[in-house]
């Protein structure tokens, strides 16, 4: 009997300039941290940097430890690990880091929220 399976997408080179390692994701392990550091240093708006400092990291990590699954998926009966902590009311619109304004999400749910709002990838 032949088993049905879905073929994997072919690997592609790491997106970091000059790296030729073949990857499933965007960057290889070596360049993922470096690309993120460069984004934080040069790509992020100054006001955004101020709002997301060390205090936010502590709040985010504590909230993620207390809510280990995506809250939207969990409500639908799915167990999906948390990957993002999202502000229900964005900081740019007067939201705070208060726990009542936070929700634990997987990347898919987080991307869907921002896509519906139209506030992601608008300048790329």
Automatic annotation (TrEMBL):
InterPro entries recorded: HNH, HNH_nuc
Domain (HNH nuclease) ranges: 52-111
Gene Ontology molecular-function annotations: endonuclease activity; nucleic acid binding; zinc ion binding
Pfam families in the cross-refs: HNH (PF01844)
Name of this chain's protein: 5-methylcytosine-specific restriction enzyme A
Origin species: [Clostridium] aminophilum
Classification lineage: Bacteria, Bacillati, Bacillota, Clostridia, Lachnospirales
């Amino acid at each position: 009997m032949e088993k049905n399976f879905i073929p994997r997408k072919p690997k592609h080179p790491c997106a970091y300039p000059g790296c030729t390692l073949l990857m499933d994701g965007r960057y290889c392990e070596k360049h993922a941290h470096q690309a993120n550091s460069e984004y934080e240093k040069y790509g992020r708006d100054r006001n955004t940097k101020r709002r997301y400092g060390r205090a936010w990291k502590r709040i985010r990590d504590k909230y993620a430890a207390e809510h280990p699954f995506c809250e939207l998926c969990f409500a639908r009966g799915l167990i999906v690990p948390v990957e993002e902590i999202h502000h229900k009311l964005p900081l740019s619109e007067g939201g705070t880091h208060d726990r009542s304004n936070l929700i634990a999400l997987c990347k898919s749910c987080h991307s869907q929220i921002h896509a519906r709002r139209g506030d992601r990838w608008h300048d790329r």
